[in-house]
Amino acid sequence: MRTSAPLGVTRIRPGSLALNPLKRLASQTAIYGLSSVFGRLLNYLLVPLLTYTFAPAEYGVVAELYAYMGFFAVVLLFGLETGYFRFRSREEWPPATVYGTVLRFLAIANGAFLVLVLFYQGPLADLLRHPENPEYIWWCAAILALDSVGAAAFARLRAEERAARFATIKLLEIAANVGLTLFFVYLCRHAWLADPESLLGSLWDPRIGVGYVFIANLTASLMKLLLLVPQLRGGLGQFDPALLRALLRYSLPMVIIGFAGITNEMLDRAALKYLLPYDPETNMAQLGIYSACYKLSVLMALFIQAFRYAGEPFFFSYAKERDARATYALVLNWFVIGCVFLFLLVTLYLDLFQYFVGAAYREGLHVVPVLLLASALLGVYVNLSIWYKLTDRTLLGAGVALIGSAITVALLLWSVPRWGYEGAAWAHLACYGSMVAISYLLGRHYYPVPYEVGRVLGYLVFGVALYLGSRVLVVQLGWSAPLAGTLCMAVYLAAVVLLDGRRLLRRTAPATS
C-alpha cells in the first residue's frame, strides 16, 4: 500500500521519470548550469581585476586562504547534504523532520566553530605566516559558517526541484560579491590613490589590501542567508536525535570523501609555498601564477558543478526505475561528450583566454590543458560514484577518496620540488585517473552499470589528439591558432553528430543486453 505524500511535499508520479529522464536531467542541469556559468563569469571578471591590480605574491594570499577554506567547508557540512537527499527519499521520517534535524545541527556546530576561531584568530594567523592580518582568519571563518548553514537551505531547494529560486539566489550572491569587490578594489582604491581624504578614498585601507576580497565575500554570504530565510525558518522547529545519529552514520564517511576530494583539488595551492624550492617571495609569486592559470579551467568546473547540483537528486530519485542503470550509462556518455567539448573550447582558443589573466601570470599557461583533462576525469568519477551512494557503502567510497589523496600527497612531495607547479598539475591528473579506475572496478562488483567504456575512453583520447593536432598545425605548419582551433572543433562536433546524434533524440536510455 503506497503512503500518501506529506503535506507540502510533491511526490513524483510513478513512471514519470521514465518518460524522459535525460531531458529532465538536462533541463535541471541547464538551469543550474546557466546560473552557475553566468554567475561564475561575473566572478571570473574579478580575475583580470585582481591579477592586474595585485602582484602575484599578494594574489597568492587569496589563493592560499581560499584553499584552506575548501577543506573546512567540507568538514563543517559533515556530509549532511548527501545524507539529506538519501534520508529524504526514505519513508521512515518525514522530509520536514530530516531537513530540520540537518539544519539545526549545522547551525549549532558552525556557531561553535565561529566562536572558537574568534578566540584563536591571532595564533592561527601566526601559524599560517600572516601575523600582520589576523582579521583575514576571522572573515574566512565567518564566510564558512554562513555558507555551511546556507547549504542546507540550498539542498532543500534542490530536492524540491526549485531550481529557479536556487539559481536566482546564487546569482544575487555572486553579483553582490563581484560588485562589492569592484567597489573596494577598483573605485575605493583609485579614489585613495587620487585623494586619501575623499569619501571613497577613506574606505580603502592599504593595510587590508587583498583582504577586501574577503570582506566582499562575507557581505555577499550574509545577504544570501537573509534571502534564504523562508527556507531556514521552516526547518528550525523539527529535530529528531535518533534521526541525527542515523544521518551522521551515513554522512560522516562523506566528510572523509569530501575532505579527500578537497585534498586532491586544493592541497597544491595550500602547500606550494612550502614545497617550492625558492625563497618565500618567489614561492608566493609562483603560487599566484599557478592559481591564476588554474582559473582558466573554470568552464569545466562550472559544468561539473551544475551536473552535481542536478545529478545527485536525479540519481537517487531514479534508482527504482527499471532502466535506471542503462540511463546512468547513457548519462556518462553525454557527460564526457560535454567535458571534451569544454576541454577543446579552452585549449584550442587559449590564445584568447590568456587575456583574462595579467601578463605576469601567463608563463603558467602550459599547465592549463593538463588541469582541464584532470577536471574532466574528476567529472567522470562523480558519475561513477553512484555505486557507493546508492548501496550505502560510503565507507568504501571514502577508501577510494583516501587512495586518491595518498597519491596526491605523494606526487606533490616528489614532483613539486623538482618541476614546480607543473608537477602539481600532473599530480591532479594522476590522482583523478587512478580514482576513476578504482571506482569503476568497485562499481562493477557492487552496482554494475553497463558503461560503454570504449566510447568514453575514445572521446577522451580523441579530444587530446585534436588538441595535439592543432598544436602541430600552428607550430609546424604555421596556421593561425584560431583557424586551427576552429577546424579541430568542427571535426569533433561532426564526429559527435555521426556517432551519437541519433541517441540524442531518444526519449529513454537504450536497451542493453
From TrEMBL:
Pfam families, from UniProt? Answer: Polysacc_synt_3
InterPro entries, A to Z:
Poly_Biosynth_Transport (IPR050833)
Membrane topology category: Multi-pass membrane protein
List residues traversing the bilayer: 30-53, 65-85, 97-120, 136-155, 167-187, 207-227, 247-267, 287-307, 328-350, 370-388, 395-417, 423-442, 454-473, 479-499
Primary residence: membrane
Give the protein name, as stated in the record.
Membrane protein involved in the export of O-antigen and teichoic acid
Localization: Cell membrane
User: Keywords for this entry?
Assistant: Cell membrane, Membrane, Transmembrane, Transmembrane helix
Q: Which GO terms describe its cellular component?
A: plasma membrane
Entry-linked PANTHER family: O-ANTIGEN TRANSPORTER-RELATED, PST FAMILY PREDICTED COLANIC ACID TRANSPORTER
